[in-house]
């Protein structure tokens, strides 16, 4: 009788759209708008995972009152999340504890189960090893390729086009130490095209080729990003912070993003734009971590565990970016991670160690160092020098606040005007302006990493740089240390060029960061600070030389002594500006001291970093990454800020006083059709389950996605489920009249312990609960009766409203 009844399925439109997405086991394989070709071969559709298995636990024609419970066996997709949704940290951690408890109990039963238990415990360390090896290898490849392509703008090696300028002249027999950058094997473009390197025409040819190569590299970078992987643009750190907080952005850490980001990062750095590769290397390392997670069930099936791996991968990314493994771990802890247990700290340290070791084995710069601008200083600093170091800190804070405000204003203009519709033209225009202004000045023409290396350098007798063109008024020097000397013509010329470089870097970086190409901010910020620091350091050096009898100098700086190290000022300035932009403190100081290999300079670095943060915080509370998170409307709940307003849960919950009633499901009185109607008419991510609409007594909470999958699975596995089948969430089946269709038990997808607060709970406590437990939603009750619901989005909107910001800027669920 009931077999002839109307067997309408769930709304096919919404189900088809659900089918077209990848399994939520994958964080990575649904790409951006232009990458739908990967959906066919990366992940089988959900229906492919649900095999046409005709066995079921329900009844047939002769057992019309038997219940149907298809959830004794796990259903693919249940317990996973849609794109642009937040994970449930509490549920994920609970599932991992259950899994671990089951493995531990089984390990006592047989040797095979014991081996499985040991391999499960070891899998985390193996995963860290693989992440470190892959991240270090990719970083070495990026470093070598970028170095070669940067030199390609100026010329080519006739002995082998794959050699960069430095490697080309290494084995040359016709090069002197003073002119070690000039060898017959290396030909500029004017030598190749018009057979001469002298004269105005040769200069114009080299100029033209420099700009042409820069435009070509930039065009390739932005085109690849636009066509194949829209998520490969930017630094990636704001999005990674958001993902680590529990948000899901599918495709952001996928294999296409990794491939395109690696290629375009080389092109973008080589184009000469004012950007760095350090921030994007964190994104690259996190992509490696996410992809490798799919080799291990423990991490593939648990979003919270996967985020522990991504935290460690971020540490490995900074480790290879700066050659600073400890600084990488602290960066992950201080700047990007949301949940960082002690176990993750150890594993982050191991991943950073392996990544640094791998990069050291590759030796991309040929100097046995992990970065191009590694330096060693030997001169101690004096207490009086804290004054100029603090001045550099003030400059760094001012520059950081200025940069954040102007860059965010420009990015907002890009998002809200026609400018954002033409990313290729924008990149080409900025590249052309940068290249045209950069070529005449040798300090802007060289790569930013080489510039920082030059500025950090402590001048020796054999240095041929203009920054080391001092007048030598001495006969001998002790222990290889040179006394302070009067500046020569080259130093004064370099000062003017550096001043112009500083102005160009300050202005052009504002427009470069945020374009649709991979772009990091660490190196441009460090360059601005290093230039300011070197200028101040040379000024202090000359002041000490000509006025060593002044009271501030005579007690510690005698004539002929090596008192001031301009390179140290450059390093302190670099730390100050990077701290002003990112608001990093502890990790920044450790990264900088790992770069220099000297513990005695920690105090100057700490003084500059703290001053810079205080000044920048006084002018604006957000760092650049937090500002971009807010600009993009990501649902990131900042753990560092206090909520100081005296509002209550009832002021924030939905529904409000004049709103329609809260949409709920009852525990044992709704049919499949009723539930499908509720799902099709609403867009909510989940529904509270109550005893009855009259009592409003809370039973639990069920997710929309789990409902859709479970109902669809039941329809596929048994013909008996029809629109009039009763769905119940209780332990036992409700009494049913004879000859009714089988009931459908969905108790296993019901969260029986949802977090609840009363309507009079202060919002500061609610915000704290959301922050510390990583909740998606919290139910509001009054005397045990359900009143409403507060979601993470509601909390973020309320915080924005209290801060007099636009609450509708929170774009995602």
Give me some keywords for this one.
CBS domain, transmembrane, transport, Clc chloride channel, mainly alpha, 3 domains, 813 residues, disordered N terminus, transmembrane helix, CBS-domain, 11 strands
Molecular structure report:
The chain has 813 residues and is mainly alpha-helical. It folds into three domains: 131-362, Clc chloride channel; 387-472 and 482-622, Clc chloride channel (Orthogonal Bundle); 649-803, CBS-domain, CATH 3.10.580.20. The chain contains 31 helices and eleven strands. Helix 30 (763-773) links the parallel strand 9 (756-758) and strand 10. Helix 5 packs parallel to helix 10, helix 5 runs antiparallel to helix 11 (278-293) and helix 8 packs antiparallel against helix 10 (255-270). The longest helix is centred in the N-terminal third of the chain and has 42 residues, at 111-152. The chain starts with 11 loop residues before the first helix and ends in an 11-residue tail after the last helix. The relative contact order is 0.12. Residues 1-26 are annotated as: Disordered. It catalyses: 2 chloride(in) + H(+)(out) = 2 chloride(out) + H(+)(in).
